[in-house]
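Renewal narrative, Specific Aim 1. Our central claim is that a sequence can be written position by position from structural information alone. The example that follows is taken directly from our test logs and has not been curated for this report. It begins with the structure tokens describing the chain, in the order in which they were read.
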């Protein structure tokens, strides 16, 4: 399993979807469920980091374009 810090947005999102599906299916031990939940939380955070970075890049591009238009 690849470290979360190395995952791109799409990979982190896809794995998060798989984690949610596993948790919804149930049948896991408490320890396994907790480990899966923790990985899911970390994956969600990684997705948020990617989205925040993308949002910042878009805002910078818009600001740069507006500065060029003035």
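The sequence written for that structure reads:
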């Amino acid at each position: 399993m690849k470290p979360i810090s190395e995952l791109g947005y799409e990979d982190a999102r896809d794995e998060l979807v798989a984690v949610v599906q596993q948790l919804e299916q149930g049948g896991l031990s408490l320890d396994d469920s907790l480990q899966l939940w923790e990985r899911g939380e970390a994956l969600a955070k990684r997705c948020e980091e990617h989205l925040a970075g993308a949002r910042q890049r878009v805002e910078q591009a818009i600001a740069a374009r507006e500065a060029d238009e003035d």
